[in-house]
Here is the input.
Amino acid sequence: MSASPDGASGLATLALEAAEAVRSRLGDLRPAVGLVLGSGLGSLGDEFEDEVRIPYDEIPHWPPVGVVGHSGTLVAGLLEGVPAVALKGRAHLYEGHSARLATLPIRVLGALGIRALFVSNAAGAVNRGFKAGDLMLISDHLNLMGQNPLTGPVVEGDERFPDMSVAYDARLRAVVRDTALAEGIPLQEGVYAGLLGPSYETPAEISMLERLGADAVGMSTVPEVIVARAMGIRCFGVSCLTNLAAGISAEVLSHLEVMETTERVGGRFRLLVRSVLGRIESEP
Here is the structure.
């Protein structure tokens, strides 16, 4: 009988088997930082030195990716001299994956030994002071997806009840702020609301999110951070605000607009992430 992500031992087995398959191709590389490259940041995966590229379909048990703009490749190597591993694209819950399976790649990165996880995404701006094209440092999140990837039997090594009071590491966020200032990159900061999708939100839902304290809204990231924190991995992340959310703008929302905006701001987004990586290796 094959292992299942629904059971604790099965999920751990899947992650370890996938991690061993990846590790066998990395040679002596031991990644210290993991990066989830969302829409618009995927090309950062083409800037690694001494890179190793592994298509997701060559990794056992890996959930398939089906979103335009997500290539579906694991890339490992050196970025700004830091041994790192990046995911070019992610599985989303709205594709029909359970939260436990969709976050299996984070468990694999943890098994590879990463100490910090950088998450990125494309998001709609809920805060009326933000504009399309802004970058937003994630200070906290709202899990409104209706699922938690830790539901079910506890996985060995996980904290059963992980503290989420500082889900996004304060020291790493300070590094991002300082880096953005030094590089002259404008940076907003705020709360990311994760909704299931795949439909965009209604104006009434955006009005609700405003009242709940959200500054941006998207369809990913939150389950990844929950799993990483349960594993004791420090997290930090940045959203690329690709559009004004429904009701704030009269424009019709589309994935094409998302792709166009991420392409336009991709250069400074990549510069920010690379510059941050060059600084965090000194973090304890």
